[in-house]
């Protein structure tokens, strides 16, 4: 890594080897398991249903490390595939399932601990269990927690989820938020992958605005390290619309003392927007210190040449490019601290303090 910026990808999934029998602990709640074909390919399964064809990079550490070398990625922050969340299961089964998945992720990352950084998952449908589990997982070696952007109808501003996020802040555990179970599926019917192309962006924007307009960011500790995948969805492009609504309609600003743009220093986003022009806007909105490389590895809709969009983004200085490619992620996940100790909280920006 001498002579160049170490590249850290914060948005990279794993589907650890889970058998059909093991998946039955989630009876009636998806039952995700991996069917390997013995030729470097496989199928993500949901019970008896085929979900998505996949390749060995998703579950085999050697294949992944080879792909990272080809793409010039030094470190990946590894999170479960969202199909594995288990949020539809009753809490006791979901807790057992998350324990299994977390152990498998640790085992996977232990094969190259200097390059593969594990994130745990938790049964977010039961906040007490989720809090206990994230503390246990952090002690076991997980460097953060990966959660879905909602649990059924409850989004991140729900009181129980806010309690969980507060616990993560108190414990110094970074939180990576991924969209899943996308809204509007009944209208898109899976055509042209529209739930992924439209639904994911909408889910993420909905989550961010829910935290802003509900006043949840006012209640959450500033020490919370929170990152949204997929570039924050459609949030950056529509931030002006949200600010305009806050200024002109009391129903929009009822629970939030500040406009949405005042809260962009409370979270991070990844860079998975796939267009240098979109990334330029994202950096302008968030600041170069709050965007981190994310590729959605190893799925086909991910960035196939890691960091290419960052390197092609006009107007980034060398220092800003280095921050997006790896520096911001090293600070966010405290990768230079052996125990993942919480870094000093950034001071509020002058712009956001004087909105």
Please describe the topology of this protein:
Elements: E1 8-14, H1 20-23, E2 32-36, E3 41-46, E4 49-55, H2 61-71, E5 75-80, H3 91-109, E6 116-118, H4 127-140, E7 145-148, E8 150-151, E9 154-155, H5 159-171, E10 175-178, H6 185-188, H7 194-213, H8 216-219, E11 226-228, H9 235-248, H10 250-253, E12 268-270, H11 276-286, E13 291-292, H12 308-311, H13 318-332, H14 350-353
Parallel strand pairs: 1-5, 5-6, 7-10, 10-11, 11-12, 12-13
Antiparallel strand pairs: 2-3, 3-4, 8-9
Helix pairs in contact: 3-4, 4-5
β-strand amount: 15-25%
CATH architecture: Alpha-Beta Barrel
- CATH homologous superfamily grouping: Metal-dependent hydrolases
Shape descriptor reads globular
Pathway: Secondary metabolite metabolism; quinolate metabolism
Family: Belongs to the metallo-dependent hydrolases superfamily. ACMSD family.
Pfam families: Amidohydro_2
Protein name: 2-amino-3-carboxymuconate-6-semialdehyde decarboxylase
What are the salient characteristics of this protein?
single chain, about 350 residues, alpha/beta, 5-stranded parallel sheet, 3-stranded parallel sheet, 14 helices, disordered C terminus, lyase, Amidohydro-rel, aminocarboxymuconate-semialdehyde decarboxylase activity
Would you mind describing this structure in some detail?
This is 2-amino-3-carboxymuconate-6-semialdehyde decarboxylase. One of its GO terms (biological process) is secondary metabolic process. Pathway: Secondary metabolite metabolism; quinolate metabolism. Helix 3 (91-109) packs parallel to helix 4 and helix 4 packs parallel to helix 5. The strands form four sheets. This protein has a five-stranded parallel beta sheet with strand order 7-10-11-12-13. The protein has helices spanning 20-23, 61-71, 91-109, 127-140, 159-171, 185-188, 194-213, 216-219, 235-248, 250-253, 276-286, 308-311, 318-332, 350-353; strands at residues 8-14, 32-36, 41-46, 49-55, 75-80, 116-118, 145-148, 150-151, 154-155, 175-178, 226-228, 268-270, 291-292. Helices cover 40% and strands 15% of the residues. It is globular. Mean pLDDT is 93; it is low at 344-355. The protein has one domain (8-17, 61-336): TIM Barrel (Alpha-Beta Barrel), CATH 3.20.20. The protein is α/β, with parallel strands linked by helices and 355 residues long. It contains 14 helices and 13 strands. The longest helix is centred in the middle third of the chain and has 20 residues, at 194-213.
């Amino acid at each position: 890594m001498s002579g160049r910026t170490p590249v850290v990808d914060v948005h990279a999934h794993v589907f650890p080897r889970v058998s059909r029998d093991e998946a039955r602990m989630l009876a009636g709640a998806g039952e995700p398991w991996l069917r390997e074909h013995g030729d470097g390919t496989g199928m993500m399964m949901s019970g008896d249903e085929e979900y998505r064809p996949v390749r060995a990079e998703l579950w085999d550490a050697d294949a992944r490390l080879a792909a990272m070398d080809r793409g010039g990625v030094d470190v990946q922050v590894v999170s479960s595939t969202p199909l594995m969340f288990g949020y539809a299961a009753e809490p006791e089964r979901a807790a057992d399932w998350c324990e299994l998945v977390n152990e498998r992720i640790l085992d996977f990352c232990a094969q190259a601990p200097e390059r593969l950084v594990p994130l745990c998952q938790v049964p977010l449908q039961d906040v007490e269990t989720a809090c206990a589990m994230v503390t246990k997982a952090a002690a076991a070696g997980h460097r953060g927690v990966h959660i879905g952007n909602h649990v059924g109808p409850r989004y991140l501003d729900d009181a129980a989820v806010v309690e969980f996020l507060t616990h993560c802040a108190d414990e110094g555990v970074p939180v990576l938020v991924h969209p899943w179970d996308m809204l509007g599926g009944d209208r898109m019917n899976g055509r042209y992958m529209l739930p992924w192309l439209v639904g994911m962006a909408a889910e993420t924007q909905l989550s961010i605005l829910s935290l802003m307009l509900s006043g949840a960011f006012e209640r959450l500790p500033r020490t919370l390290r929170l990152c949204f995948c997929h570039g924050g969805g459609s949030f950056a492009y529509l931030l002006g619309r949200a600010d305009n609504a806050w200024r002109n309609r009391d129903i929009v600003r009822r629970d939030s003392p500040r406009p949405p743009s005042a809260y962009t220093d409370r979270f991070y986003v990844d860079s998975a927007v796939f267009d240098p022009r979109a990334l330029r806007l994202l950096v302008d909105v968030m600041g170069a210190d709050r965007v981190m490389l994310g590729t959605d590895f190893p799925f086909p809709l991910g960035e196939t040449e890691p960091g290419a969009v960052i390197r092609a983004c006009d107007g980034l200085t060398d220092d800003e490019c280095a921050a997006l490619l790896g520096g911001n992620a090293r600070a966010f996940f405290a990768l230079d601290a052996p125990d993942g100790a919480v870094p000093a909280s950034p001071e509020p920006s002058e712009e956001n303090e004087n909105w």
